[in-house]
Amino acid sequence: MTVVLCLGVLVGYALVAFLTARSVFLRGRAAYLEGRTGSGGAHTVGAFERQERQQTEAVALCAGALWPAAVPLLLLRRAVAALVLARPAGPVRPAPGEVAERIEELERALRLGRHAAPPCSGPARMPARDGGRRTDEVPTTRRKS
């Protein structure tokens, strides 16, 4: 009787661990494919297989092995993210209009883009460093043999 009970507990633990790992893996994969991982826009399945699969599998394996702690965190993910990280759960990005205004402001300050000065005509000249006397020859420091 005790052996059957122990075996049932082990099978139950393994089943919940498998389901937790599978859930974490699918969430990680979906987040990468939708571009919610902070690495830019949406990605392809091939890019996931090349770049992120091993990392996502490792995280899923850890979450599955530690399912008594992982399951409550997965269920309360948004609340935990708000409390622990002190920020919203989703990515915080400025509005496109704000980004365009900031770019315009920086271009104006640095005189880039359409705010740039017109190009100079002719070759650029460097100011003389020899007290205003210009020479056509550049002095050399080579010894004559």
TrEMBL record:
Task: Note the superkingdom of the native organism.
Answer: Bacteria
- Residues annotated as region Disordered? 114-145
> From start to end residue, where is composition biased (Basic and acidic residues)?
127-145
**What is the protein name for this chain?**
Uncharacterized protein
